Amino acid sequence: MDTDNKHPGTKSVGWALVQASRLHRSRTGDKLSELGLFAGQEQVLQALGNSGPMTMGELATILRVRPPTASKTVSRLSALKLVERHTEPGDARVVRVKLTKEGKRKAAAIDALWDEVEGELLQGFDNKDRKRLRKLLRRAAKNLAGITGADQTGFEADDEADGLEASEPELAATA
Asked: How far is CA 56 from the centre of its chain?
C-alpha cells in the first residue's frame, strides 16, 4: 500500500469528526465492558443520575431516541437491577424510571470513566482549546439539528460558563 497517498477525507472536518467519534466510542465501549455494560446503556444511567426519576418519554427525549428504544434499554438495565420502573399513582399509563442503589454506583463509575476517556481524548489541549472545541461542536450539532428538524435542546452553548463571551473574538466573528 502506498503510504504517501492521503485519505480523500483528510481535509474534511466531517471525516475527522467521524474518526474521532469512532475512536472515542470504541475506547468508551472497552471501559464500559469492564463495568459489565454496553454502549448506550451508560447514557440512560447518566441521564437518570443527573436528572433523577423521569418518564420513559422524558428519557427518550433526553437521549434523542424513540420511546421503544429507550424502553428496550431500560428493560435490560432493569434485568441488571440498575433501574426500577414504577407506574404513576393515579395514572398507570405513566411509567417513571429511577436508579437503584447499584445503578447510582454504576452512574458514578460511568462519570469517572467519561472523565478518564475525555482526558485521554484531549491530552495536550489547554483549557482554552477545550472550551473552543466544545463550543464549536455544539454549534455544529445545532446547525444539523436545525436542518434535520431534530430537537435542539442541549446544544445551547453556555458561553459565560465557558468563559468565551468576550475572550474569543475569532469565534464571535464567525457566529
From this structure: 18
pLDDT digit string, tens, across residues 49-93: 999 999 999 999 999 899 899 999 999 999 999 999 998 888 888
One DSSP character per residue, 116-141 reads HHHHHHTTT--HHHHHHHHHHHHHHH
Q: How many CB atoms lie within 10 A of CB 155?
A: 17
Q: Name the pTM for this structure.
A: 0.73
Q: Check: CB of residue 137 under 8 Å from CB of residue 169.
A: no
Strand order in the sheet with 91-99: 54-55, 91-99, 83-88
Q: How many helices (H) and strands (E) does the chain have?
A: 8, 3
Residue type present at position 131: K
- Tell me which residue has cell 472536518: 13
Contacts for 110-113 with beta carbons within 8 Å, 24 or more apart? 110/32, 110/35, 110/37, 110/42, 110/45, 110/46, 110/49, 111/46, 111/49, 113/28, 113/31, 113/32, 113/35, 113/42
Q: Which amino acid type is present at position 89? A: P
pLDDT (tens digit per residue) in 97-117: 999 999 999 999 999 999 999
Q: Does residue 172 surpass a pLDDT of 50?
A: no
